[in-house]
Amino acid sequence: MNVKENIKILVIKKPLKLDCGKTINNFPLAYETYGSLNENKDNAILVFHALTGDQFVTGINPITKKDGWWSYAVGPNKSIDTNKYFVICANVIGGCMGSFGPSHKNPDTNKIYGTDFPVITINDMVNAQINLLDHFKIKKLFSVVGGSMGGMQVLQFISNYPDKAITVVPIACTSSHSAQNIAFNELGRQAIASDHNWSDGKYLSNNTLPDKGLSVARMAAHITYLSKKGLQEKFGRKLQERDSLKFGFDADFQIESYLRYQGSVFVDRFDANSYLYITRAMDYFDLVKQFDGNLSHAFKKTKAKFFVISFTSDWLYPTQENKDIVIALNAIGADVGFVEIKSDKGHDSFLLDVPDFLKTLKNFLDKSYLEI
Amino acid sequence: MNVKENIKILVIKKPLKLDCGKTINNFPLAYETYGSLNENKDNAILVFHALTGDQFVTGINPITKKDGWWSYAVGPNKSIDTNKYFVICANVIGGCMGSFGPSHKNPDTNKIYGTDFPVITINDMVNAQINLLDHFKIKKLFSVVGGSMGGMQVLQFISNYPDKAITVVPIACTSSHSAQNIAFNELGRQAIASDHNWSDGKYLSNNTLPDKGLSVARMAAHITYLSKKGLQEKFGRKLQERDSLKFGFDADFQIESYLRYQGSVFVDRFDANSYLYITRAMDYFDLVKQFDGNLSHAFKKTKAKFFVISFTSDWLYPTQENKDIVIALNAIGADVGFVEIKSDKGHDSFLLDVPDFLKTLKNFLDKSYLEI
Q1: Residue B189 with chain A: CB contacts under 8 Å
Q2: Which of A24, B14, B98, B163 is in the most buried spot, having the most CB atoms within 10 Å?
């Protein structure tokens, strides 16, 4: 992984007290923008990325040279129309695309943090990103939008900063990580920690990489992003470049080859310790508990207009967990819309070419923008 | 793992041609029996175990010193009543509880097989076990019963030996491993192969054990055995012996501690290469393809009475896949009953104390036995 110098960095000078109790300051927040901020500064959308995303939302990611992770949704005339809106996205703290994370050096010791990096939370992530508003002199965002862990940040953001966004779009997410969610994340962490090269997180100092463990973690996560039906339709029992079973342990089936490929390309763009830290932040996320068991209280100070989106085949953050957010908003008479999009593509639906979703998101944003 | 000398072994002298093309003979099949074979020899039930099971169905397993894997269902006055029936169960070939498997020595080279062991199939497993009938001079079994991979063996057995069982009880299984099933198994295999100690399967010769990889594989599988709802009800976000989050990577949550424990105890009783071979056999299982796309043809030669059982919260082998077996049987006018048992315990329901299931199984067997 080669984090190039052309990454945009905002150095956050103001001290940020983390949930773990430690305070950080003078730390880098890497970000990217798309479109132009208008004169009124009322067209800004803060997009939050998911577990393995980064600030390069659309177009070609200058580091990986591949399409940005939300190229279907963000761009000129797309759902989040960059001809109209100014899109900002920051790499989360704890990440590995330029923002302050475990692969950085500890200025006090001049050693790479590794697992000495403080454990961060979704709350810490959004409290770092709020600084982007000052940086761009934006008083109020037109929208905060994100899917999966991005959706968790959306919920935390509007809870922390109730007057900083006009519209709020949490997608395919949850207000509290479930036991099954934690279980899959723990599986990934154990896969990494089991890698001989992980060396208790000191691999960068040792010039080794726990690629095998990180690859297994990615494979595990990837299965959860797709639906059983989607996998069956796409792969079923199709064989990989062979006419018959080979009676060995090579990838006989296309699904095996696909997973191995997903694992192998992931390790080129992601840091294993960042994977540990970000999954930990997700597991710690419990907005319900933050408000003593009453999720409604998280939103009672905001007048923002919410639009919650879920997908029929998402079994990682199923519709019911998205509906729980809607129920909490309804309970306080908040302005909230909800749609469950029919899709066989599982949790990944929000990242993929799912026309009903893309149209729905565009309509909500564009109609809401006309009203401001 | 210490496979003791008191394990009962049937040496299969007759050559067995495996699906991979190789022929094996003079190989050990480890088995156990419960109850007594009656004079008419008409009260025998062949039970097939699942992926990580073994021949020690009930009572205390003499090797692990823990309860047998089906202690809820098998025993005096239980669903499979050992006061009434003679229960036989064999360790599958490829396994690690005494039957011919990858931890055995190759007599030709005097070296431990490791991954030189031939890849075996569900078909090979049942073709090895048919020899138990000759051994006990049983002409026809009263029943063949099994859950999960045990159910696959049930289906394969009656397809291969249509006149060798009066009743047939496949539980929580499938006629063809799905892409998602293969994906989870491949994840487990990759976790093992990623372990530095696996050494291309030669760990026993090297006096090392890929315990970390095998443990991760077990954790992955274990998640699939439980339902999302069951996990939430049992663990939710409960903390493990602490009042608050510790902002580290130890097991903060009970679900993390539980999974780590499941992984750690598993490696004491299971062989990593056996895990590779048995998951491969499951992935290769496709009874539909064996009969050119028409599952009904697998059963057209038998007059056996079928009873198919599924569980509402089983997402590994969901009800629909069990119903597909019923549909194939109905299409040829076979004698088939079906029940979907309501349970939040996921795929593991068949192994657990699920009274509706245990009663239903008992009623089917006992009523059917009265009719013979």
Answers
A1: 249
A2: B98
- Consecutive 10-residue averages of pLDDT for chain A (372 residues): 72 98 97 98 98 98 95 98 98 98 95 97 98 98 98 98 98 98 98 97 96 98 98 97 96 98 97 98 98 98 98 98 98 98 98 98 98 92
Q: Looking at chain A from residue 18 to 37, which residues have their Cβ under 8 Å from any Cβ of chain B?
A: 19-21
Candidates A249, A70, A103, A184; CA nearest to B119 is A249
Tokens of A325: 């957010």
Q: Which of A71, A144, A100 is nearest to A3 (CA)?
A: A100
Residue with tokens 């076990």, as numbered in its chain? B129
d(CA A267, CA A212): 8
Structural domain containing residue B192: 182-278
Residues 6+ apart with CB under 8 A from B333: none
State how far the Cα of B281 lies from the Cα of B275, in Å rounded to an integer: 10
Strand partners, B143: B45, B167
DSSP 8-state class, residue B339: E
Structural contact between residues B89 and B55, judged by C-beta atoms closer than 8 angstroms: yes
Domain boundary among A247, A278, A309: A278
Portion of chain B with pLDDT greater than 90, in percent:
98
Kindly state the helix (H) or strand (E) to which residue B44 belongs, with its residue range. Answer: strand B44-48
Please tell me whether residues A322 and A303 are part of one structural domain: yes
Domain co-membership, B344 together with B322: yes
In a domain, B219, yes or no: yes
Indicate the helix (H) or strand (E) that contains A160.
helix A149-160
Residue B234, chain A, CB below 8 Å: the answer is: yes
Q: Scanning every residue of chain A, which has its alpha carbon at the shortest distance from the alpha carbon of B180?
A: A228
Contacts of A220 in chain B (CB under 8 A): 187, 220
The minimal CB distance from B187 to the residues A176, A216, A253 is found for: A216
Question: What is the CATH number for A259?
Answer: 1.10.1740.110
**Within an 8 Å CB–CB cutoff, is residue A196 touching chain B?**
yes
Quick check: is B79 in a domain? yes
Closest-approach residue (CA) in chain B for A210? B194
**Do A46 and A147 lie in a common domain?**
yes
Q: Residue A34 belongs to what H/E stretch?
A: strand A27-34
Which of B176, B212, B251 comes nearest A194 by C-beta? B212
Same domain, yes or no: A64 and A152: yes
Strand-pairing partners, residue B307, are B337
- d(CA B162, CA A212) in angstroms, rounded, equals 46
Answer whether residue B59 shows pLDDT above 50: yes
Q: How far is A326 from chain B (nearest CA, A)?
A: 20
Query: End of a domain among B224, B259, B278?
Result: B278
| CATH number of the domain within which A344 lies | 3.40.50.1820
Residue B148 bears catalytic tag:
yes
- CB contacts of A182 in chain B (<8 Å) are 237, 253, 255-256
Interface confidence: ipTM more than 0.90: yes
Residue B269 has pLDDT above 70, yes or no: yes
How many domains is chain A partitioned into structurally?
2
- Written as six digits, the tokens of A292 are 């003593």
